[in-house]
Amino acid sequence: MPWGRTAPPRSPGPRSAQGRRLARPLSVRTLAAQVFVLQALIMLVIVAGAAAVLVAQDRHDAEHNARNRSMAAAEAFAHGPGTALALRSPHPTTWLQPAAERARRGSGVDFVTVLDPRGVRLTDPVPALIGTRARDIGPAAAGESFTQTFHGRPADAVRAVVPVTDASRRVVGVVTAGVQIATLGHLLDEKLPMLLGAASGALLLATFGTALIGRRLLRQTHGLGPAEMTRMYEHHDAVLHAVREGVLIVGGDGRLLLANDEARRLLGLPEDADQRPVTELGLGPVPTRLLGSGRAVSDQVVPVRDRLLAVNTRLTAPYGGAQGMVATFRDTTELTALSGQAEVARGRLSYLYEAGTRIGTTLDVRRTAEELAEVAVPRLADFVTVELLDSVLRGEEPTGAVHRMRRTALRGVGAGPPLQPVGDLIRFVVADTPMVAALNRGKAVLVPDLHTAQDWRAHDPRGAQRALDFGIHSLITVPLRARGIVLGMVNFWRGSGSPRFEEEDVAVAEELVARAAVAIDNARRYAREHAMADTLQRSLLPVGLPDQDVLEIASRYLPARSGVGGDWFDVIPLPGFRVALVVGDIVGHGLHAAVTMGRLRTAVLNFSSLDLAPDELLGHLDEMVTRLDSHTAGSDDDRAPLTGATCLYAVYDPVAGHCTLSRAGHLAPAVVDDRGRVTFPDLPLSPPLGVGGHPFEAGELDLPEGSRLVLFTDGLVEDRGRDIDEGLAAMRSALADAGRSPEETCRALVETMLPAHPGDDVALLVARTRLLDPSRVAVWDVPSDARAVSRVRAELGRRLDDWGLGDAAFSTELIVSELLTNAIRYGTPPVRVRILLGRTLVCEVSDGSSTSPRLRRAATTDEGGRGLFLVSQFAQRWGTRHAAQGKVIWAEQALDHRPEPDPDVLLDALAR
What is its subcellular localisation (predicted)? Predict the structure, then answer.
């Protein structure tokens, strides 16, 4: 049969003739008969091999099973009760022979034999062998059990040899048990008929299947004769040469076997092309390589002479022919031109869609400009530069000064283009340049050939020449505009190896820049709003930590990835060298959260000036939040309510090392002692601020000197990928170091617990405690007797002399005298005086009355009422705070030796 010609089904003839052909017996010369014989031989070999493998496997399994049974029987008898004792008796055979026979019959082995340590048989199924010596039991005599295939007298067998030991682990005998090889052969002989039967059945089944295949093959050939085959070939040739597609058949050796008339016309084949190698037909490199590759392709368009042909190739071998290839050719020159234009348009749309997804992925002006350059290179241009106004880079509104821009992005296919680098200031001052023309016209300007254009050289002739020498030869410059305002300029350059820009490229460049302009303007406005919110929030946070001596403090604030939030902290010095530590968290992010944080922080500062207890202060704060929320709910204001804000307020007293804390829905702080042990104290928890209806409770902690108190918001220990328990466990590990300072503790927590851009903002405050030196504290319990004032004043003077503060004795004695006199006269017992020396001198007078004094101006006729006025003149500041029982009036004096009030002025003031 010629190459590539197949036999299509012929039209059916008379039913009687077809029936005779299908009923025709298989002939040895037919393909069906040869396939049948070959498959039958293969199945015979396979079945025989499988039977041999099964026999070998059964023999191996039987021998393995015999070893296991023998070892089990031998070990059971050797370790059986009484075996060792019987071996040491005067007549061991008498005792062991019956037992060995019972064990043999019970275990199914052929023999169980007991030997003495020298190998002499004491028992045996064959009595005549008793007393004879057994061979190859040396390892067992040494105390080792083993199995083996034994060959020799009295019979070949698979046996196990096990030593018998007494209580002292000494070998007193040997037990052998086994199965004879003859027994195993008998078992295999019993299985052999079954194996042969199965093999015969498999062979018969395979033969039947092969016969069905042969019948099917005979049916598909239809028993065609020579005349019918000739007629089929004639029809085949007529169709082959009449079709409007070129057909080539190439043999496995690369020679042309057949070419129809259309193929000869399309390819320009010579008359003697048959049997010539395809490499000698002059088809061109692409079709020659395609026909010689031996791979199948579908509708691949290749140029041949002045035509574009769609080529399909298929291998002939899988379809019944010898090794070779069939190729068809269809003229698609005009169709390719039309589809090429559509493909270009589709490619541009796809490119612009891709650019829309890749430009503006971040709300960052510089990164958006870089993304524009990355998208344009190399698909649109070889080099891209992006210049933006400085005001745009700062997030401000674009100014009218569009002739001064900052280069923001530069990207190219090669390294080192002769263009100004990123960061340079670009000035567009020469009116004839394409850039200035584009800015004035508000649309793109195309310069197809920079070699012939002179206007673009006017601004920087030397730089222009370097660009030309580098190979840059074509330019499109596009103003970057959004909302009708110029934001910057984008320049697209093409270099050597790339074609010139055309008008179609201008449309793509303008669309690309328009999309980028919207993204850059959005990023600019976001940057402005983010900067405003960030500035507002940071202005509402503490600028610096206040000066005080009782706590070593470090702090951190980290804004969230999504923007500013409402987390905050504060450190507030209180009278008596006490310090208040505050941490709070506002629900949500953005300007509203920042403003809310500022309002709450201001409220806490105001309430702390009243020197309230932590639970009372949170109660007032909760009342304020509830009142503000009720006002918001009753108006048209769409602001989010304050309800849900959390706060932790702690007051540390350095005299006793005592800390009082109260929390409204906030996490408890961590306490790290001076040995690095971390605890999370169980403090009373009240609802968040604004919930209302619940009293606030306070908890108390005793903090030895050197302890670290860690206050934090939930953003430190909780995020989407970690629950709060995991976060607290990680925080415990990060804090477990006794030698860290507060600053080092903050750094370790931030590096260990937080990613580079946390999902929630974080406020962190770490304070290491110090105690006030007891030698700088003086306390006097004063009886309710006015005569005790002079005694306290005298002791106070001596103590001030001990402290080296004799210069402050007059003013301090005056302050204490006035305050103590008021407490004795108007207060209730117990009355106590306490003097604290730190960076200032604090005088405290406490009594059991809750009535607070107030400063007033006494009339000239009044005999009293001038004490607090004197206190206010000599003290730097003074005030009153309420305790659990009574009140404390305190006055604080600076130790910088400031001048005391003029006595004449005081007398004049008192006399009025």
Answer: Cell membrane
